[in-house]
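Run folding on both entries below.
>entry_1
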Amino acid sequence: MDFFEIVDARRSVRSYQDRPIEEEKLQAIIATANQAPSAGNLQAYEIYVVRQKAERVALASASLSQDFMAGAPVALVFCAHPARAAGRYGERGRRLYAVQDATIACAYAMLAAVALGLSTVWIGAFEDDRVSRAIHAPAGHIPVAILPIGYAAETPARTQRRDLSDIVHEV
């Protein structure tokens, strides 16, 4: 697939086959996330790979009971690491750039998964403290997004998007 086909094929999938992800595909997804641009190339984020069912269940519980998440064979948790950005960018780096870095890395991972024939859904609704405990994150790693990854067991319809004339503003 070319890039535009990948973007067009991406859907929010909430049901996964009981099929493991090949390790080389998972590593390719993580390597692609590592290529994402970041403020000052500081890569002020961390990626937690969650393979164990008990931890995926804990993540689902911490995510407002989005229980489907536990059905994916793996979940990636993207955390901002504000201290990495604060040294160069001060408070703006701590408050914003680290979150942006984690966000764009997650977006790259999501598109890489689609390119490899896998499916994902972006999870942003969760209790930070409970997610941190589930992944055993040290203080200072702030959860930003959870990305369950697996082979789709459903084919969701395309969702309605806002009209470009509604979101684009010429200045």
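>entry_2
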Amino acid sequence: MNRNIKKCVLLDASTINRGGSIQVALSTIHYAIHEKKYAWHLLATRQLAQQIPNAMLKRLTSYRIIRLQSKIDRVYGGLVASIYCNKIKPDIVYSIIGPVYWRPKCTHIQGFASPLLIYPKSEYVGIAGSKISISEGLQNALKRRQFVKSDYIITETNTVRQMFSRKYRFPLDRVFVVENGHSPWIKRFKIRNKSSTNRPVIFVPSGYYPHKNLDAIPFVASKIKGNGVSVLFRFLLSCDSIEWKCLFKSASKLGVGDMLETIGPINHAKMRKYYKEATVVFLPTMIEASTAVYPESFAAKVPLITSDKKFARELCGNAALYVDPLNVESMANGILEVIGNEKMREKMIRRGANVLKRNYPTPLQKWKKVMGVLDTVIKREERWKND
């Protein structure tokens, strides 16, 4: 192998890939295989690997797939990563979405998308109260430790960059920003906003996390029903999961069980079908480090309703309808306003296209920024070694 070619391990740190994390990982791999400057090695969970075409996997220098079923398995994943990297001896390890519970011997960059680690608890307690268990609290403490042990961090907004550096006294010059964006698959299929059902579809393309505030949705559905309107809230949660069962139980008690549906976790490439069928996208989140839901809604030409929060306004500008995530009536009225006004939806779609161009890089532009970070880090580390 040419000595000028650097060896980079792409590490998929997720145990269960959902939502934006899998979009980021797939997009990274999609472009990495065409970049000849580095020899790319991939350590991926089975959940991610199932969504990577074999033709893409074969273009990697090497890859290994591991099956991680639970959060505790991340410790096992760290052991596998250590053995894998000791064999490869990479120049750099890029954990696409961190943290990983392992410290490589070489330079380590971790992608940061864990808002619970930088926001105070008062910012993310939703309508149903705090859903963070003792075990999750302990896991978050371990996550903090693993992020701080990184050599470099990549965040998706400058606000998060500043917050992370300030909270953990992490050198600001070691924290880079690569803005979020939509998946290359979303653009490819030229999505148009057209519902295929007899009632408006409210798409909720999010995994279940404490700060997403999804527990509010059954109450929102009840309020909408009280106005004599029937809609369908569509989720991406596993039908066997505790989270979905709790949401559906809550909805059933309120008499709106028929207004909630889950299609379960799906391959990211299939997301186009459900964006296409959506009347609006709804994300009542309390906090975010960033989210792929915003740019993908704009790219898919679906009106977006989200929380009236500083981070959301920073990312969405005038393209979204903002509602109070702690006020059921505000959320219900926002949905009713948008689904009942076609001209408003068309206006939001046009604004979304403008904000997408202004605030978000294209998938290729985002990849070039990632490569810029890798090149900068490699050169910086080599210079320090020679000094």
